[in-house]
Amino acid sequence: MVAEHPPLLRGKLRRNESMARHVSWRVGGPARTYYEPADIDDLVVFLQQLSPDEPLLWLGLGSNMLVRDGGIAGTVIATGGALMDLERIDALTVRAGAGVACNKVARFCAGLDLVGGEFLAGIPGTMGGALAMNAGAFGGETWPLVRRVETIDRHGVRRWHEPGDFQVAYREVRGPAGEWFVAVELHLQSGDGAASLARVKELLERRNQTQPIGLPSCGSVFRNPPGDHAARLIEACGLKGACHGGACVSTKHANFIINGGDASAADIEELIVRVAETVERVHGIHLYPEVRIVGDAAPGGVQP
Ligand SMILES: Cc1cc2nc3c(=O)[nH]c(=O)nc-3n(C[C@H](O)[C@H](O)[C@H](O)COP(=O)(O)OP(=O)(O)OC[C@H]3O[C@@H](n4cnc5c(N)ncnc54)[C@H](O)[C@@H]3O)c2cc1C
What we know:
- It is a single chain.
- This protein is α+β, with helices and mostly antiparallel strands.
- It contains six helices and 20 strands.
- The strands form seven sheets. A five-stranded antiparallel sheet has the order 6-7-15-11-12, sandwiched between helices. Strands 1-2-5-3 form a four-stranded mixed sheet, with no helix packed on it. It has a three-stranded antiparallel sheet with strand order 17-18-19.
């Protein structure tokens, strides 16, 4: 916990902040403490004031996170409205703060006639989240673009790392323990910006045709197993449209679970478990969630 009136802080500090307001599934209990830093220097001050045993959860735009109904017994650090610097630093390199939306980065690069980041336009999260997840779409992935990343630890110490300091796989990134991303330098190629923007438009149209964009979801719930698609396996089990409480498997894309409006996090998690169990029983394939499930079950609630 931080002191009740910490000196020098310029960010937004809230107690018992509903996480449903900050994640794209629109569910989840409160965070005991929620902090949106004003900028990187403010984040350093905030971290230096934290007690060493305070649990920390880093949040981007919450587009890949299921927060349980009992909320977060710790501090959430929200970068989505902060760490927003975005600039070209040399001919082929763009530096982005961890809080910058991926979509903005894709368009910024195209505007500079720098190509290779078009796929980022379809990822509704921050660059920090994209680094943590190795987010990807339409054949592109985040880490092949990375020249180096800047991290911060819980004492507010900042470091630069090369990609070789991280083990990067499909939707999985392991790196130095206890460090989080605050910025990235992306290496692009020189190209035709107008063509790049046209590609962005085409990818977003394809996405709109195949995914339930605009409804509360977290995108694909499960990782694709090697050589197959989770959506195909789920659909083949007849689970499209299957519901649990207010949560339903999308009828448009079987790997999406939609909050119909009154779902709880427990409804969503129980549906995730049911889908995974059914796919395992029918196909003999174990699906692993791509979405990060965090926090505590509601008092008296059951954590599947
Ligand atoms: C409609 C829809 C479509 C989607 N399509 C795709 C897609 O095509 N491809 C794809 O890969 N994903 C997709 N996603 C999932 C999601 O957008 C990505 O995983 C995205 O990278 C998450 O970014 P975020 O900022 O929202 O992260 P969050 O959901 O806020 O966090 C995700 C994880 O990253 C960690 N994290 C966040 N910021 C940092 C940081 N600065 N440092 C360290 N860790 C951090 C969090 O602690 C958490 O573990 C989609 C989601 C939706 C809702």
